[in-house]
Design a protein that fits this description.
Largest sheet: 6 strands, mixed
Strand content: 15-25%
Shape: elongated
Number of helices: 15
Strand order of the largest sheet: 7-6-5-8-10-9
Oligomer: single chain
Number of strands: 22
Radius of gyration: 26 Å
Helix content: 25-40%
Length: 528
């Protein structure tokens, strides 16, 4: 039930954090973490047995846990003797994938943590998990600081092209942001960053490359070549993460030049490759990633929707923040609007609305508000079928105002005044057309006229009312009961890879079977 719940509370509130955490916990995951703790009693050395401390630890692990042929990190060996003696010859050992000793602590320890991170072009989100139980103990998110180098992905690649060394700048700021995120979730969970022994990452190909310190310039033009499309595993210290010095990083595989590890995470989370139904999954964002298929075949594509769905390129648009309009209804007779803003539970026609929004005011319209407003304008007759603001409706309401050679709709007559202009409508038409065209292109390739199920993924997808998405033509027609939101499915996929070792083999196998459809070179994409 939580997955379909809309929670109107400030994003920095404890209630919001609890809801985010519960949503993350909802996906049932078989717990088989890559890092496991083993408590052992080690035989003390004596003059008759010169065996080294490490060898006696290995013997104890074999006898007490059945672990053999283990390798050990040098930093573990450096601290092993002190840990054994401090623990009176009992220690807790962290073993990675049953093969590598990565940490040792004196005495008994029953908690170790892992972090699952989704690096979006706009937002970086992370879930801190207790590895043995799988419990999400803390969740947090922050703005991707790379946004100052460009709103969307290709503008960031352009920045690198025009500014030698720009990729190094963006790599540095995103890594620092992840360090901040790790510190924030560790503080919330009342542990330290040194307790984090494993991190999994998902992200689109450009975010993937910049995280790893790879220049993304090849992704800026055909054939959009990836440096690697396979899963990657390495030490956290190699990308300057200030967590446990022996922590490992696992980055999920990419699929193609503009279909990245985030899409792999979505596939792992939603499992379309195990379904009988023809399933369409759309991760809505600046660069929408689309997957279509079932257990017989999977297709994937990326579609350049641009930032309009996130409030950019809209005259009154803004990011989701307190004061932003997120829900809109327009009276069919009077054409009067009423709306809700982030941070207030009341609709704008409630007597106490002004009082409850004094602190924030009404500041703009966020992405979900833009979608609802355009759809409501169409349903109430303000917009024609082809997206023209109908000036003839001015006789019905003074909110339809002349705007040069076109007309606009006055949504909020306050400070600031908020209008939906003809250019705003065109920006949304372009964005939704790119999304719909990408889906239709995959349906053409698959040879199907309709889909059985649609899943909207991503933070933005989880806030869209699916009815309005279909009214607007963002997605193909489908039974509304079969259209659902999956929240941050990419982040859930990262969490699955963190908590279930077998899932890493599964996703590496599945992505090799996904057929990539390149919208940039498909003539039918432009036709659609």
């Amino acid at each position: 039930l939580l997955g379909d719940l809309v929670i109107d509370v400030p994003e920095d509130s404890q209630v919001h954090k609890q809801v985010v955490r519960k949503r993350a916990e909802m996906r049932a995951i078989e717990i088989d973490p890559v890092v496991k703790l083993h408590y052992v009693e080690v035989a003390e050395p004596d003059m008759h047995d010169p065996t080294g401390d490490l060898q006696r630890l290995e013997k104890a692990l074999k006898e007490q846990w059945g672990l053999t042929d283990l390798d050990t990190d040098l930093r573990v060996i450096q601290k092993l003797q002190a840990a054994l003696r401090k623990g009176n010859w009992t220690v807790t050992v962290a073993v990675h994938l049953g093969r590598q000793i990565t940490a040792v602590w004196p005495g008994f320890r029953d908690h170790v943590y892992g972090l699952a991170v989704d690096i979006g072009s706009t937002t970086i989100a992370g879930h801190l998990c207790e590895l043995s139980s799988g419990e999400v103990v803390a969740s947090s998110g922050l703005m991707n600081p790379q946004i100052r180098f460009g709103e969307d992905l290709m503008s960031r690649v352009s920045y690198v092209m025009m500014n030698p060394g720009g990729d190094t700048e963006m790599t540095k700021v995103v890594r620092e942001a992840i360090n901040d995120l790790a510190a924030a979730v560790a503080k919330e969970a009342n542990c330290t960053v040194q307790d984090i022994l494993e991190v999994t990452f998902v992200g689109n190909p450009i975010m993937h490359h910049l995280l790893l310190g790879i220049n993304p310039i090849e992704l800026g033009g055909a054939p959009f070549a990836l440096a690697t499309d396979g899963p990657t595993m390495f030490w956290a210290s190699e990308i300057d993460l200030r967590i446990h010095p022996n922590a490992r990083i696992y980055v999920l595989p990419c699929i193609a030049g503009h279909v990245g590890a985030d899409t792999a995470g979505v596939i792992l989370s939603e499992s379309p490759h195990e379904a009988d139904e023809m399933t369409l999954i759309v991760d809505v964002g600046t660069n929408a990633e689309i997957v279509l298929g079932n257990k017989n075949k999977l297709l994937a594509a990326s579609s350049p929707t641009g930032p309009a769905f996130e409030g950019a390129q809209i005259s009154c648009g803004q990011r989701a923040a307190p004061g932003a309009i997120e829900r809109i209804r327009i009276d069919r007779e009077t054409l009067e609007p009423r709306f809700k803003v982030i941070g207030c539970d009341l609709w704008s026609d409630h007597p106490d609305f002004a009082k409850q929004t004094e602190a924030t005011g009404v500041t703009g319209v966020c992405g979900s508000g833009i979608i609802e407003c355009i759809a409501e304008m169409f349903l109430s007759g303000i917009l024609t079928q082809d997206g023209v603001v109908d000036g003839a409706m001015a006789v019905k309401s003074p909110r339809i105002e002349a705007d040069g050679r076109t007309f606009s709709y006055l949504l909020h007559d306050g400070t600031p005044q908020l209008r939906i202009t003809q250019n705003d409508v065109r920006a949304i038409q372009l964005a939704k057309a790119a999304l719909y065209a990408g889906a239709k292109l995959l349906m053409d390739r698959m040879g199907v006229e309709k889909v059985d199920r649609i899943t909207l993924a991503g933070a933005f997808g989880s806030h869209i009312d699916v009815k309005y998405a279909m009214v607007l033509g963002m997605i193909p027609d489908c039974d509304l009961a079969k259209v659902t939101s999956a929240g941050n499915a990419a982040g859930t996929g990262a969490r699955i890879a963190l908590l279930n070792a077998k899932s890493r083999e599964e996703i590496a196998r599945v992505v090799k079977q996904v057929e990539k459809v390149e919208t940039a070179v498909e003539p039918k994409f432009q036709e659609h």
